[in-house]
Design goal:
2 copies of one chain form a homodimer. Chain A is an alpha/beta fold. Chain A has 16 helices and 22 strands. The first copy, chain A, has a 7-stranded mixed β-sheet with strand order 15-16-17-14-13-18-19, sandwiched between helices. A 5-stranded parallel β-sheet of chain A has the order 10-9-8-11-12, sandwiched between helices. Chain A has a 3-stranded mixed β-sheet with strand order 1-5-4, with no helix packed on it. In chain A, strand 13, helix 9 and strand 14 form a beta-alpha-beta unit. In chain A, helix 3 runs antiparallel to helix 6. In chain A, about 60% of the residues are buried. At the A-B interface, strand 7, helix 14, strand 19, strand 20 and strand 22 of A face strand 7, helix 14, strand 19, strand 20 and strand 22 of B.
């Protein structure tokens, strides 16, 4: 069986000590192993700080962008192989796998293009020169420069391909070397990508740690950045880490998120806007088996429309074939790990104690093409409550699977915004309405709780990717429960890996620095 | 004796429990007291969250700016009274007091003008619309909206007036209600300012807690912002606070900073640039008795120039009259508290173990106009080391008083940048040179470790405020040891109190929201 190696200090090493198995979550068959100890992390940090930083400092934004373009090309060249790994190791359908892998390539290409646009510079200007003296001779000018340190990327199990790329692209373009740590259970896609990327990059620019993080954070210092995507329990551990606190290590977190979808009071379910709403809810429940940090978990509909919404959801969800995604008829695969299955079942039980069943009971399902009793499967589950703003199980706990809860409201935009706020900070939420006054009132009140707000309407329905898709040009992150972080958003994504400095001095000197 | 009250939930209340004394640090005479317990902080948070936020949400940026203008005017109207309080309670000379109080008014006025410029809006746009669909119909647009929560401001003892205003102005303009907590020992200026401000502001917009923070942070939630200026020990406690971690409460920290000044290899001490360098070093040692978070603590000069630099420093510092700042001949007052005196003496002893004396021995001084043995006085101290990059006492510990250490270097910009980096993150540093190539090489390498970089040169010398002055138009903060935070910087200062949200939807709808 393949023993996945880590790529550290310029070479592939398999580590030592006890091994952990990676399995096919549809069949529970072991497909690879990782060793959990024995890597020299101090040497890896030193390699990044010396070789990695020196190499990147020599490159302009355009040259770093060209490297990113070569990585995107490498993904395209190995696309079928990567899709097969995602199906086998992630429980992904082919569509799920493409969403992850193509999403990674798109993000690399976006930052490759941004690099070309930023051109021959290594410093970013921030705003215009500001006169700070009696005459225009003395000015202030804000600039961004690459932080002197290492970017540590700790990724989630659900997007091994996209997660690697969406953190790597802005860090590398900004000028920081990266040590990337995928979630162990689904590491095969990221591992293969780094096998493809490593020969294309200068030494020290990208390293990969497969297996437990171990003492990774013990090596961090004041110039470093740690970017984490995952659950709130791990997020708390990172925040409280002694070395992170002592050195003000920059920490970006994307954690739990109880994303909501609001159906506006003006929307007929049979209209284009209504159809968009229903399609988005069903897609977010079933794509990646609901294992998207951006998926809709909470749905609010005008009081009186619940029954019609339930009818459509029952019909659509009832037609989803669940099973081994290697089987071509399958539309929804298993959850990624046994632990995820335990967590989702526990979450459904918690919801069941406060809500009523609409579809799917507690998620029991007989999957297609799977040995009896095997696989981490759960079926789509819709629950409902008459009092969605008061329901703690709905608003305080994210169930990371194909589960959503629907409740009514009295059409008021302020109530809808209160429901958004009840999630205490989300990565994204969506509202579906063609009533501009209602939308304007809602946006002003809801936006402070959201990293992204998707406004579904008839005029954009035909070309919408849905709220669950993260685009490289728009920021990704959210306040409060969602972790308080921010990634991507075009050039904004670079800022997380750079230091803003206010330069003060003679106008001619400062302008020549940015020329 | 005056018992300073807190302004909470719309009224002034004196609290209960044991009392702490505020003293005149020149004479140690008690001049006021505060009670350390008995305030209903839960009610104060509720008042901010309900009344304060509602009032601010109704106001446009222009209207909030007009409020800030009225506060600046109130300071001007009570300027002499405030200066007298700063002299008596802060050990400030009249010049020190004006620096604090006028600095506060200038900052309020800056944000008042920004409010007028932002006009009738309540939402800030961020960048241009981005086409994200097949056609220009589907766009993304980033916006900033005021966070739904309370801004908790915990200020340092050294700038009670400016500290209150520089945090209040951007928070209030952004749209967040404030609870401000000055350092207890020097709270009289902030207390008087809030007495002046309170009648000018809508209910709940500004509250004041005088005395210990107590359980202040236990009331924070996911929409809140805590902004702290002070020492690294308290900063660590804030970062590790359970509720802050659990709710991703946004935390902005300005902590210790070993700011450096670098004399370029091209500079003759007798030149305009040389004179600027010497004046800036002497000002930063003596202004506020060296108790500025932006003061120069570390000085690097070309090898061979040390003796000439020492001659000038000895002459200038020897002429400084130290004593009770109520005495008009006095140019430098005491440190603010007994604890600061202990800390500075300990810091000088630590430096003495690794450096040689140049001026002022260990800071013993006989102050003018002070009862024998009274007051928290220390004289200016200059130390030197032949190996400034290796000296731990110099680079690892901030001595928050009139103390600086000078060392030589071999003229290389890379070495100068390494010296900056050795501080592990500074609020500000300065370089003095008229050699553009040297400056360009230095800036690229040093900027990642600095929140602000002051470039002293002949052409700007005549109108320079020195590196120690924080301007509202430029960001204030620094990476690593300096806390990793950022304040001010014009509109950038508002962002710390707002949430960035990526809107996605129909172009016409989104453009109408920002119109």
């Amino acid at each position: 069986m393949q023993l996945l190696a880590s790529y550290l200090s310029g070479s592939w090493s398999q580590g030592q000590g006890p091994r952990a198995s990676l399995v096919n979550p549809a069949t529970e068959a072991p497909i690879a192993e990782v060793a959990t100890q024995g890597h020299d992390l101090a040497a890896a940090f030193a390699h990044a700080r010396s070789a990695g930083r020196r190499e990147l400092a020599q490159l302009t934004f355009a040259q770093r962008g060209a490297l990113l373009a070569s990585l995107a090309k490498a993904i395209h060249g190995a696309r079928e192989e990567l899709i097969a790994l995602a199906v086998a190791n992630g429980g992904n359908t082919r569509g799920d796998a493409k969403f992850d892998i193509d999403g990674g390539a798109v993000t690399l290409s976006h930052y490759a293009e941004l690099g070309a646009k930023l051109g021959a510079a290594r410093i970013l200007g921030d705003g215009e020169p500001i006169q700070i003296g009696r005459t225009a001779r003395l000015i202030g000018q804000h600039i961004w420069t690459a932080r002197h340190g290492v970017a540590i990327h700790i990724n989630a199990f659900n997007f091994p391909g996209w997660g690697l790329c969406e953190k790597l692209a802005p860090a590398l373009l900004a000028g920081m070397p990266v040590i990337s740590k995928p979630a162990t259970a689904t590491a095969m896609v990221a591992h293969r990508m780094v096998e493809l990327f490593a020969p294309l990059l200068p030494p020290g620019v990208l390293q990969l740690l497969v297996g437990p993080a171990g003492t990774l954070l013990d090596h961090t210092g004041p110039g470093d950045v740690v970017a984490f995507t995952g659950g709130s329990t791990t997020a708390r551990t990172l925040r409280a880490h002694e070395r992170m606190i002592a050195h003000s290590v920059r920490l970006n977190i994307e954690a739990d998120s109880l994303n909501a979808a609001i159906l506006g009071p003006d929307v007929d379910l049979a209209s284009e806007t209504g159809a968009l709403f229903l399609a988005d809810v069903v897609r977010d429940m079933t794509q990646k088996t609901g294992q998207k940090c951006t998926a809709i978990r909470r749905v609010l509909v005008p009081a009186g429309t619940e029954a019609a919404v339930f009818d459509v959801l029952r019909e659509r969800l009832g037609g989803i074939v669940i099973g081994d995604p290697a089987n071509e008829t399958v539309r929804m695969g298993p959850l990624a790990t046994a632990q995820q299955l335990r967590d989702v079942r526990e979450g459904i039980a918690r919801l069941a104690s406060e809500t009523e069943a609409v579809f799917g009971g507690t998620g029991e399902v007989t999957p297609v093409g799977v040995p009896a009793g095997k696989g981490y499967f759960v079926g789509p589950v819709v629950r409902t409550t008459p009092t969605p703003l008061e329901c703690a199980a709905l608003n305080d706990h994210e169930v990371f699977g194909p589960v959503t809860t629907v409740g009514p409201y009295a059409n008021d935009a302020a109530l809808a915004a209160q429901f958004i706020a009840r999630g205490e900070g989300c990565l994204v939420s969506s509202a579906y309405s063609d009533d501009r006054d209602w939308v304007a009132s809602f946006v002003g009140q809801a936006a402070p709780w959201l990293g992204r707000l998707y406004l579904g309407s008839a005029k954009m329905a035909a070309q919408s990717p849905g709220p669950g898709t993260v685009l490289p040009s728009l920021t990704h992150g959210g306040p409060g429960r969602a972790g308080g972080g921010e990634e991507l958003g075009g050039v904004r994504g670079l800022h997380g890996y750079m230091q803003r400095t206010a330069l003060q001095g003679d106008a001619t000197v400062i302008k020549s620095l940015l020329a």
